[in-house]
Amino acid sequence: MTPAGTTATATTDTGTASTDTEGRGATSDGGTSTGAAAPAATGKGRPGKKPSEARPSPLAVRRRKLFWPLLAPAVLVYVVFFAGPSLYTVWLSFNKWGGAGPMSFVGIDNYRRLFDDPTFQQSFANTLWIILGVGGLTFLVSFGLTMVLRDMKGRKAARSILFFPNIVPSVVLSILWGFLFQHDGLADALVGALGMEHPPNWLGQSNIFRVIMVGLVWTSTGFYTTILMAAVDQIPPELYEDCELAGANALQKFRHVTLPLMWEVVGVCAVLWTISAVKVFEFIYAFAGAAGQMPDAGVWNTALYTYGEAFASGGVPRYGSAAASAVVMVTLVGVLVVLIRRVMRRDTVQF
Amino acid sequence: MAVTTSGRPPGRLARTRSRLTTTQVLGVPLVWIVAGFNILTGLWLLLSSLKSADEIFSSPWHLPGALHWDNYSRAWSEGNFGVAAVNTVVVVGGTAVITLVFAAPAAYVLSRVTTRFNGGFVLFFALGLGIPAQVVMLPLFVVMNKLLLVDSLFGLIVVYVATSLPFAVFFLTGFFSTLPVELEEAAALDGASAFRTFWQVMLPLARGGLVTVLILNVIQHWGETVFALVFIQNTDHQTLSLALLGFLQQMQYNGADWGGLFAGVAVVVLPVLACYVWLGRRIIEGMTVGSVK
To answer: What is the pLDDT of residues B199-231, one digit of tens each?
Structure first.
């Protein structure tokens, strides 16, 4: 009953998920498409039966009555506390509002102000850095690890260890990572042992964001390595043996066998990364904001900016521009996901 | 064998093999260095949680001279980790169970009863997977404020349940659709009502998937910070992640109590580690589900 293998047919690609459920449901369909459904249900044991005899089974009829009673509670909670508020944020982003009193409609003013605000520009740039820079590095490292892990002794153990940071709360990882770079801390000791007299000021303004980015690579690599490994495991080993006979080197094998055969998975990973990269919050918040206040604006990403505008701005909360910033975040995700899917689209290699 | 069929001089294949091992000679130690970094960080954290603050800096690589268990008692009482641990257990447990209560029936009908709305609902839930917390939290804060659910553990549970539904419904819909239909039909023939079939036949069958969702949900919320920061204000109601942040803040005024801080960190990490050692494979598979066909 391992979910990874079996439920995988309902992929993260939501389109596939829905068709899958429909396909399944058809074997014992309710009433909408009785003609098509019946042969699948009854035809198995008795090939002589005709489709015209199809009637929804009593089970299907009774089950249909459950549809709304079982679905409605979840939909209600989801709409009231998640989907509704999300949509309302869009409306909020066109208004000026301090959290109490009346709202005033200001059109796209919030957005205009947002993109004029140097703090937001910096936050936006940092978000892009996380998506592209950290993402690129994470994928590079994950690919490297996957290649080595492919036929290594103790790969399961190594994979488990690499994956572990992924389930440790980000706040904890952030505190540990930050401690490594304290003045006279372990990073300094390490650099000193390598012969550097004056260790760089890790947490100084020019370096701190880079240190954060490397920390993010550390925490996310295990997850993607695990996914890529699962994809590599499905590549038939004969292909590699053929390569070896043809005298291909590791890089050639990677380019001509591994990469084409896991192209689709790489695309899924890119989408997953984009979504989670935009959500990065705790790691930066706890890393740089040790005083329990907001960290220095130079390391903010859009997630921190949104939070700061709404809840930590000192004076009147600026819900309008916070909402606008949130909308920019989700738009960025949407645009990038569409872009990734378009760029990665390619005939899947069957094997 | 390969050598004879290829008809090449044997030396050539041997050379390929040896070149392969050279990449591995470089790669394998690198993998273990990265893995070793994780292990050492963990070990070092545990050891540091038993050291005095001076010792952590003066001899970071040594075993603690004396075991400072007082770090833990200080974190537990002064750092409010005791209260926070209880709160977190309540919130995390409540969230996981309530999420299942809502998600499992919905996922069941979405995977089994076909109407023209199915695809739409599945997509509607799945879209929530891509929505960052920041997009929801402003209006949600206003709503919760009106309902007097800000700064209450129950309110936090409500928020967590709502935001957990996308993944839970998505995951369980997939899981239910892999279960055989025959048993349901048998139950129906035996005269079980549709609801009873769901309750007494399908739910037990889906136990594996339900447990996976439960575990992942607990892990996800154990150290959740964004919503906790927004919706919890009072120290009495804070969760472990807030206690950690609060401890960091206190250190600004009371001096660097790194020993106490690491004891607090250990309180947060050890349950996760125990859970991982116990259920590691299941956690990994659950989290990477759907990425690979």
So the answer is: 998 999 999 999 999 999 999 999 999 999 999
Q: Are A93 and A110 in contact (CB under 8 A)?
A: yes
Structure confidence at residue B6 (pLDDT): 41
H/E segment holding residue A105: strand A104-105
CB < 8 Å to A311, chain B: 229-230
Evaluated on CA atoms B211, A77, A338, A166, the torsion sign reads negative
Ramachandran sector of residue A48 (left: φ over 0; alpha: ψ -120 to 50; beta: rest): alpha
B63 touches chain A (CB under 8 A): no
Measured N-to-C along each axis, helices A208-233 and A135-149 cross at an angle, to the nearest 10 degrees, of 40
* Mean pLDDT to the nearest integer, B173-195: 87
Integer Cα distance of B107 and A256 in angstroms: 40
The ipTM (two decimal places) reads 0.86
Of B34, B162, B174, the CB nearest to A81: B162
> Which of B13, B34, B114 to probe by mutation at the A interface, max A CB count within 10 Å?
B114
Answer whether 0.90 is exceeded by the pTM.
no
Q: Which two tokens stand for residue A257?
A: 């066998």
CA distance A344 to A218: 26
How many A/B residue pairs have CB atoms within 8 Å?
Answer: 378
B229 touches chain A (CB under 8 A): yes
**Residue B251: its H or E element:** helix B240-254
| Residue B153: per-residue pLDDT | 96
Partners of residue B119 in chain A, C-beta under 8 Å: 18-19, 21-22
- Using the Cβ of B268 and the Cβ atoms of chain A, whether some distance falls under 8 Å is answered with yes
Cβ atoms of B101 and A77 closer than 8 Å:
no
Q: Which residue of B has its CA nearest to A142?
A: B31
Q: Cβ contacts (< 8 Å) between A171 and chain B: which residues?
A: 223, 225, 241, 244-245, 268
Residue A19 one-letter amino acid: T
With CA atoms as reference, report the closest residue to B88 among B211, B212, B223, B213: B223
- Check A158 against B132: CB less than 8 A apart: no
Contact flag A89-B125 (C-beta cutoff 8 Å): no
| DSSP assignment string, A147-170 | HHHTT-TTHHHHHHHHHGGGGS-H
Structure token pair of residue A329: 């975040």
Helix (H) or strand (E) holding B13: helix B10-48
Nearest to A140 by CA among A85, A214, A31, A79: A214
Strand A104-105 relative to strand A95-96: parallel, antiparallel, unpaired?
Answer: antiparallel
Q: Within 13 Å and on the Cβ side, how many CA atoms surround A343?
A: 11
| Cβ–Cβ gap A291/B162 under 8 Å | no
State which H helix or E strand residue A96 sits in. Answer: strand A95-96
Question: Which sign, positive or negative, has the C-alpha torsion B90, B95, B97, B101?
Answer: positive
Query: Residue A4: its pLDDT value, please?
Result: 38
Question: Is A167 close to B121, i.e. CB distance below 8 A?
Answer: no
